[in-house]
Design brief:
This protein has helices spanning 8-14, 16-28, 36-49, 60-70, 88-95, 140-150, 202-212, 233-243, 246-264, 293-302, 332-337, 352-369, and strands at residues 53-57, 78-82, 99-103, 125-128, 153-157, 165-166, 169-170, 177-181, 195-199, 279-280, 286-289, 341-344. The chain is α/β, with parallel strands linked by helices. It has two domains: 8-103 and 111-243, Type I PLP-dependent aspartate aminotransferase-like (Major domain) (Aspartate Aminotransferase, domain 2, 3-Layer(aba) Sandwich), CATH 3.40.640.10; 246-368, Aspartate Aminotransferase, domain 1 (Alpha-Beta Complex). Strands 1-9-8-5-4-2-3 form a seven-stranded mixed sheet, with helices on both faces. The structure holds pyridoxal-5'-phosphate.
């Protein structure tokens, strides 16, 4: 059996007619940039999510940068984020001129260790950027409490947590604003780069929208200098079609995670994902941990199973952040786990038979090692 890490083709086949029609309409109307199809998606996403404003942008990375920039974050400021994430979380902090301040991960849930945030706060701290990694939300009660106490913003990186929940509140609804990516492999993915900002702050939404469109809300009326970060019509049309199925796809991911749990719970030699109480983990990724990670990954590959690592080097350990002068021992959990984490195939279209095959192979490998 061959099991790819993600399978965007079978998802396309399940909605092919609607997607093809939507693409054709955009081309026939030559609605390539802006226009009703983009406005429609923004409204649909905002409504589905339960938020006042959705500002579409070119990708998830831009959305983080634009939010911070429009909050006035820049040179001399610090923004706290987590030691294990995709580099967008920290590089966008640097792009504003501010300094990324990393906090180690929680050993159980693999997201920012909330207990370590307060000691990272200085008079220069302007914001905390929690990343709801793998589809699992951070402890937002603790983060909001800390942020309110110190009068700093919370910007949620929701690139991996579309429709995830913490105590009945969706990812992205408690911070001042949140960033989403619609990169093809994300839980809600376009057929190219795409992203958005959500916020209940109307003034901030308008600022972000203006900045993303060269600083002009009306053509040729540039009130500030901005950037060019637009969602194109084709991506908007595709996302509108896919938004209709996101509930079903999320349920299937959760069901697949439950089946992985049935098959892997109690197996010696691996640690399976722990779901934080009172949350809905939407399983963008299904990440296990095992001492001989590279050995297991190779064994699975040899048996036709693709895996990935998110991420093989914790952010502060990357060459890009050498200038900050960190040691791996400054982030002991992230530095240890970067060599142990392994993302197994996870998508709505995964069948029980496929999960049986993956988990049988994992057990086989672990038995051979005993
Ligand atoms: C994917 C991702 C981003 C960036 O999204 P792009 O659309 O690829 O720019 C940001 N943060 C995290 C945690 C991500 O996984």
């Amino acid at each position: 059996m061959n099991i790819p890490f993600v399978d965007l083709k079978s998802q396309y086949n399940s909605i092919k007619n609607d997607i093809d029609q939507a693409i054709l309409n955009v081309i026939e109307e030559t609605a390539f940039i802006g226009g009703q199809v983009v406005i429609d998606f923004e409204e649909q996403f905002a409504q589905a999510y339960g938020v006042k404003n959705c500002v579409s942008v070119a990708n998830g990375t831009d959305s983080l940068y634009i939010i911070m920039k429009m909050l006035g974050i820049g040179k001399g400021d610090e923004v706290i984020t987590v030691a294990n994430s995709w580099i967008s979380s920290s590089e966008t902090i640097s792009q504003t001129g501010a300094k990324p301040v990393f906090v180690d991960i929680d050993p159980i849930f693999y997201s920012i260790d909330e207990m370590l945030i307060e000691q990272a706060i200085t008079p220069r701290t302007k914001a905390i950027m929690p990343v709801h990694l793998y589809g699992q939300m951070c402890n937002m009660d603790m983060i909001m409490k800390m942020a309110n106490k110190h009068g700093i913003h919370v910007i949620e990186d929701c690139a991996q947590s579309h429709f995830s929940e913490y105590k009945g509140i969706r990812a992205g609804l408690r911070g001042v604003a949140a960033s989403f990516s619609f990169y093809p492999g994300k839980n809600l993915g376009a057929y190219g780069d795409a992203g958005c900002i959500i916020t209940n702050d109307d003034a901030l939404a308008e600022k972000c929208k203006m900045f993303a469109r060269h600083g002009a809300l009306k053509k040729h009326q540039h009130r500030i200098e901005g950037v060019n970060s637009r969602l194109d019509g084709l991506q908007a049309a595709i996302l509108s079609v896919k938004l209709k199925s996101i509930g079903l796809w999320t349920e299937k991911r959760i069901a697949n995670a439950a089946y992985y749990y049935d098959r892997l719970n109690g197996v010696n030699g691996i640690t399976i994902p722990a779901v934080r109480p009172e949350t809905i983990h939407t399983f963008h990724l299904y990440v296990i941990r095992t001492p001989n990670r590279d050995g297991l990954a190779k064994y699975l590959k040899d048996n036709g199973i693709e895996t990935a690592v998110h991420y093989p080097t914790a952010l502060p350990n990357l060459e890009a952040y050498k200038y900050l002068g960190h040691q791996p021992s400054d982030f002991p959990i992230a530095s240890e786990y970067q060599n142990q984490i392994l993302s197994l195939p996870m998508y709505p279209e995964l069948s029980k038979k496929m999960i049986d095959y993956v988990t049988d192979n994992i057990k086989e490998f672990l038995r051979e090692k005993e």
